[in-house]
């Protein structure tokens, strides 16, 4: 029997609570980005994340999730997603690190990821990161336009992500992993694929909150999970990039809950004029 998709539609006030959680994640990622340098271990980045999240009165969404033992995922080079922070994983000049972070504040979740070059890095690595980021924003913009028209469907996001990646060059689009609904739980329906034909799936409606999450490689897209039960790596050893933002569809536009500016620098007028805030604030 096919999975019955159940989408949690949020009220404006609930989206406001998610914005608070999203800003906690944004602050944690900003601190970790600043700390990335040769000689820094991924366990040190995890410490920074947990300290930032708990200082804000939130708890790490990842810690203990299905037994996951850390507050972030810290995936280096050919590690695509879900790599566990370790004191033995010490960053070197030229590495790529993808940092995925989530926070639960008063029962509402934010989730975002960045990929950062350690040191100068190579031009092709910078291009990989830029392509992943551009694809993510293309997906968010597609969601905004689709919701505004009243005709947009979920896979319009997938198609926009795929089109942006294909336009940029020969990158592998990782299958089986992608974005998701988010709100009172970190992972909810619907699953948001990073490729596919447009015009399929649920209508894009106000109240939907989605994590848009491209994962791409410099080589082939095939991946495998390591024996730790978490770390996903490219089979051909090529480097990967993973980026993510949590966004919400509002009545008059979208708001990127994990971006400090709500997404305005990249989306312009597609962003709602009213920043979501809880009624109590």
Q: What share of the residues lie within helices?
A: 25-40%
With strands numbered from the N-terminus, the spatial order across the biggest sheet is: 8-7-9-14-15
Stretches with pLDDT under 50, minimum 5 residues: none
Strand content: 15-25%
What Rg, in angstroms, do the CA atoms define?
A: 18 Å
The total of beta strands comes to 15
**Separation of termini?**
44 Å
The pLDDT mean sits at 96
Give a quick account of the main beta sheet: strands, pairing sense, barrel closure: 5 strands, antiparallel
Total helical segments:
5
Inertia-based shape: globular
> Helices and strands, in N-to-C order?
HHEEEEEHHEEEEEEEEEEH
SS-based class: alpha+beta
């Amino acid at each position: 029997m096919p999975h019955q998709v159940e989408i949690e539609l949020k009220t404006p006030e609930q989206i406001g609570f998610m914005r608070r959680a999203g800003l906690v994640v944004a602050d944690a990622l900003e601190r970790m980005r600043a700390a990335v340098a040769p000689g820094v271990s991924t366990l040190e980045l995890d410490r920074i994340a947990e300290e930032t999240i708990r200082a804000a009165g939130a708890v790490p969404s990842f810690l203990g999730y299905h037994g996951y033992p850390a507050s972030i995922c810290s995936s280096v080079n050919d590690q695509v997603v879900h790599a566990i922070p370790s004191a033995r994983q010490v960053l070197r000049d030229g590495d790529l690190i993808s940092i995925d972070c989530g926070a639960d504040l008063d029962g509402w979740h934010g989730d975002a990821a960045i990929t950062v070059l350690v040191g100068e890095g190579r031009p092709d690595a910078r291009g990989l990161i830029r392509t992943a980021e551009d694809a993510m924003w293309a997906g968010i913009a597609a969601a905004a336009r689709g919701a505004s028209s009243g005709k947009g469907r979920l896979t319009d996001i997938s198609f926009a992500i795929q089109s942006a990646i294909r336009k940029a060059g020969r990158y592998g689009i990782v299958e089986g992993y992608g974005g998701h609904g988010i709100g009172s739980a970190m992972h909810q329906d619907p699953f948001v694929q990073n490729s596919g034909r447009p015009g399929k799936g649920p209508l894009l409606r106000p109240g939907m909150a989605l994590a848009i999450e491209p994962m791409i490689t410099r080589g082939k897209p095939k991946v495998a999970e390591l024996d730790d039960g978490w770390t996903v790596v490219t089979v051909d050893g090529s480097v990967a990039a993973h980026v993510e933002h949590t966004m919400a569809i509002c009545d008059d536009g979208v708001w990127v809950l994990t971006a400090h500016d709500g997404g305005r620098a990249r989306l312009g007028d597609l962003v709602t004029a009213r920043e979501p805030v809880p009624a109590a604030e």
